[in-house]
Amino acid sequence: MNNRDTEAAWAYHNGTKHSLWSIHNDAHYLDFDNQPLPFKIYPDLEPIPLPGEFPPTETPALSAVASTGLHLDGDCLPDLGTLASIFYHSAGVTKRIAYSGGQMLFRAAACTGALYHIELYLVCGDLPDLDAGIYHFDAHDFALRKLREGDYRGNLVRATGNEPATASAPAVLVCTGTFWRNAWKYRARTYRHCFWDNGTILANLLAIASAHRIPARVVGGFEDGQVNELLSLDTQREVALSLVPLGHNPDPPAPAAQEAFPLTLNTVRLSQTEVDYPEIRIMHEASSLATEVETVAWHDGTTPVTAMPDPSGQMFALRPYDDDKMPPDTTERVIKRRGSTRQFLHKAISFEQLSTVLCQATRGVPADFLNPGGVTMNDLYLVVHSVDGLAPGSYVFHRDKNALEQLDEGNLRRAAGYLGLQQALPADASVDVFFLADLKPILERYGNRGYRAAELEAGIIGGKLYLAAYAQRLGASGLTFFDDDVTAFFSPHAAGKSVMFLVALGVPLRRRTVRP
Q1: Contact at 8 Å (CB) between 135 and 152?
Q2: Residue 382: which of 319, 456, 461, 435 has the closest Cα?
Q3: Rounded distance between C-alpha atoms, residue 216 and residue 78, angstroms
Q4: pLDDT per residue over 12-31, tens digit each?
Q5: Which CATH number is correct for 31-298, 3.20.20.70, 3.40.109.10, 3.30.460.40, 3.20.20.480?
Q6: What is the pTM of this model?
């Protein structure tokens, strides 16, 4: 099955939908004796410790979140300290909380079920304090481990069809997903979570890179086989999801691609047994690019955008804070403070706070599948419960008008709780933000791989919502949902659209934590 046979994307999407019937007739249980490790560990490779102190930035988090990418002239090479900051603030362990059975380790970015199935690798030429090579980032001991020696950036340039940011980057991060670490709990729906959780990491990564004045861009179009072979991945279990070129150094160019011989490296076993979910592998293979022609076609042309219907309901222009009133906390401080809210108070947030979250998080994502810059695949639909200056009800966000259109008015807490898989969080939040995409033109343009892009963009913007909320000392939590019920709820306006993601925002109940 090839990328252009889009029945695969529809089959996967429809086959992994949640419904009231599917949830209440589900016999799946969590086997905690078989829970997988949350880290990939190469036990035989020597660690290269990363610096524990990072070069500070003074960039306010809300400014970094709003960045749509830096375009700098001249060389821009990240040194080891800056790379350490990027790794730490994207996927590092930021909290260690004691409980009766030991410790819980929390990462910089949100992840479904706190199962942390996204891995980061570095492919670089010679950098200040780091030799050319391919490295794996080990979050458990905050170190790099060298997988290959030498400059293999040319392999990524070839794999991306000479994508400009990749061709001029002195370093490229590769994000991968390990299926079983998430499928242990979420089974076949894990393939959606690969891109949600990669997206929240990328939101942090783009923000901290911007704070350090390092150009960064998300690349989703590449020949999967070449990248997987370069990292020597067992593609039945782990696959490349996205690339992120870092920095700028066009002269000299990356060297020519070289043969990447298979590696025989031991890794620690994740759990006693692993359960295979063929739907994941089928969807990944069906959305893979196998030739240079496919990769070049991915980068050519523009992103299809479904026009928003002309407003028919009352419009509310957003009122974000002026620059001099923006909360000043730095990007690093906000990322370290961030968590996933476990309980919201029934308290109102201000319309200015909501407006600031939406404005800063939706400026645009620097990505090769969003062309021209600033376009988006996802539309934002809101259920407002408690926002001072905004009546409770349902809304749709008009990015071009920087305004919310009211679709319905009334107390919708009970409905929101139902839509969010009958959970308390979306009912208790101040606002629920649903991401909906018109998949038909996206799949026509990009093939099955467009499904990856739509989910990934939702995850990135969702991660930006997290950071914009925490910058204002609010809370946020990513959630799952009853797919078709959400579309029906926002119809007729949302008719024909598919739900990609859900983020709840509000005032968190703050609990005292005990740290070892």
Answers
A1: no
A2: 435
A3: 11
A4: 999 999 999 998 888 888 99
A5: 3.40.109.10
A6: 0.97
